[in-house]
Design goal:
single chain; alpha/beta; about 35% helix; globular
Length: about 325
């Protein structure tokens, strides 16, 4: 029997989830939930329907896992606990500094459900790689670099700023910092030394540009700790030059065993950040469904999910083909 998936939010990630579900033969899209005007949302999956957020409570027996495709800045802190109380859920909450608090809120709500949080690629599979590499090389240092590419969470956070009509944010890693890390010297790098942030903002008519720029640059967790540049542009320029969503990233672990040095590196290069994030979410939805059937309830992270639960293949097949 297929895992019936519901999508909450039909933005870039939501559409990505719908796109990749057919690539996973053990899953099917059951429903899409939007905040209002479901009749205006056109989806591509025959047989699936669009509902409002408020309709979800009436469909708990029709959906096995809800994938929450909402923003981390303001939406998931509200929607995450609400849905985790009714459904098994998966999300890509990405505000690293407050993940422990978010975990506790979800864990309290998901008393009889399984809720996998922060299951994108960072946090998510990058987090798993960092844990694995630190376990293997206990004497060393770990580094993460993001970009160059579009950060969905940061772009969404800018769009929440008063006076902003639309925006895209690029994260740019420091080539100098990456080179230092690859050298094996395990340098001490501040947040500001590792990345810069480039913001392309379409303001509302007659908006206070100076205030928008200040609100962005001083935003905690997102921009306050970085050298951030804000460019004000037109809608036409945003559509022409900033409509694609590539991204990339690197995780390093430099360590040593006495006099011998070792370097572990994991990298991603993505044509579509939201579609790759969607791929992660669908895999973790499969895991959430399996864990729920076992009665393994509460909030979970990528550290808690067995690797084999991400795959549609059975254990013997995995051993035969991949071990």
């Amino acid at each position: 029997m297929k895992i019936r998936i519901g999508i909450v939010g039909y933005g870039n990630i939501g559409r990505g989830v719908e796109k990749v579900i057919p690539q996973n033969p053990d899953t099917e899209l059951a429903a899409v939930f939007v905040r209002k005007n479901p009749e205006r949302t056109i989806i591509k999956t025959p047989g699936a329907r669009v509902y409002t957020f408020n309709d979800a409570k009436d469909l708990t027996d029709k959906i096995d896992v809800i994938i929450l495709c909402c923003g981390s800045a303001t939406d998931l802190p509200e929607e995450g606990p609400k849905y985790a109380a009714m459904f098994n859920t998966v999300d890509s909450f990405d505000t690293h500094a407050v993940i422990p608090q978010y975990f506790e809120k979800i864990n309290k709500a998901a008393a009889n459900k399984t809720a996998v949080i922060a299951a994108g690629w960072d946090p998510g599979i990058f987090s798993a790689m960092k844990m694995l590499s630190e376990a293997i090389l206990p004497d060393g240092a770990t580094y993460s670099f993001w970009g160059p590419g579009v950060s969905q969470g940061h772009s969404n956070a800018i769009r929440k700023v008063a006076g902003v009509k639309d925006a895209v944010q690029y994260t740019i890693p420091s080539e100098k910092a990456v080179k230092e890390v690859r050298s094996g010297t395990n340098p001490q790098l501040t947040t500001r030394q590792k990345h810069t942030r480039e913001c392309y903002v379409v303001p509302e008519e007659n908006a206070d540009l100076a205030k928008i720029e200040n609100d962005i640059k001083t935003m905690p967790y997102y921009f306050a700790d970085y050298d951030t540049t804000v460019h004000f542009i037109t809608e036409e320029e945003l559509l022409k030059n900033h409509s694609k969503m590539p991204h990339a990233g690197l995780v390093f672990r430099g360590g040593n065993t006495g006099e011998n040095k070792h370097m572990m590196e994991f990298s991603l290069k993505l044509d579509s950040n939201p579609e790759f994030t969607a791929c992660n979410l669908v895999a973790y939805a499969r895991a959430a469904a399996r864990m729920s059937k076992e009665g393994n309830f509460g909030a979970k992270t990528v550290f808690d999910v067995p690797l084999s639960y991400l795959s549609p293949k059975d254990g013997i097949t995995l051993i035969r083909e991949l071990l």
